[in-house]
Amino acid sequence: MSGNTFGTLFAVTNFGESHGPAIGCVIDGCPPGLALSEADIQGDLDRRRPGTSRHVTQRNEPDAVEILSGVYQGLTTGTPICLLIKNTDQRSKDYGDIVQSFRPGHADYTYFHKYGLRDPRGGGRSSARLTAPMVAAGAVAKKWLAERFGTTFRGCMTQIGERPIPFESWEHVPNNPFFAPMADVAELEAYMDALRKSGDSCGARIRVAAANMPVGLGQPLFDKLDADIAYAMMGINAVKGVEIGAGFASVSQRGTTHGDSLSPAGFRTNHAGGVLGGISTGQDLEVAIAIKPTSSIVTPRESIDVHGHSTDIVTKGRHDPCVGIRATPIAEAMLALVVMEHALQHRAQCGDVVAPSAPIPGAAPAR
Fold this sequence. Notes:
The chain is about 25% helix and about 20% strand. It is of the alpha+beta class.
């Protein structure tokens, strides 16, 4: 199987299976001299990890990260950084009844037909558990970008199932299990309780943003910053749509509205989502992703087995009724990895310090 490495200058190779002994990644290309410890990474992993509320899978993994290489006396050395996360709460027997069958909406079918076999234990490599190493790598990128440019990343849920979530304040996001930007999530909890009891699942919409962005990151024509963002977000399990800035709402906007007017004080709006011509403007990157309903549910569904015979399938075990609930830190991590890659590309191509002749207020110059 190929396709397990994300990035080139900041390359993250993801390894492991959902029910194997461990998962992890190797980061190749992290600049030397960055102060780094497990504590710098663990916070984001704790935000993503399972078992944190009744609304997510009850698989209880501590997701404790270990740094095996690439750090000496608390500083990155410039050599590959290996991050390991042990699996401690697998229940592979839960998948015994579906070894010969395919879950509708799941990668079971495509993995089997591509490779001639598949790992049915939690989905193997197709499991969303493999997002944990990307969150760990993203935490490393976040720290470097914060120290270099002051760039920060944050995200929230803006819709769950058919229920839009109104934005009240970013300060509410860390205080509830949904990453919802609202104070009272009682209705969301009732919605999820009813959904779990019904044996069904739902999707979600996630917003993720990067603030204090450098100007000038990105390459025309085919290595555009926004193109690479879309590529990264589509690499997250269950993502079926990506929007940059106004996204599909751009269709109904007029040019007089969509084009972000400029003034001596900076851009007046941000319909472009912080990218013009594939290059960052220094405004906040604004990204939204659509996540499909979870494929593993207890409601019986029609399917076929590996021999092509009709069958009904019920998925037992511990699963998220909405995988979008834990997707916010994953989307943040993938956005950070894209920005990190482009920051290193810019430094390699254009030199250490490049600032526009008339800096936009609040926008960090690319370095």
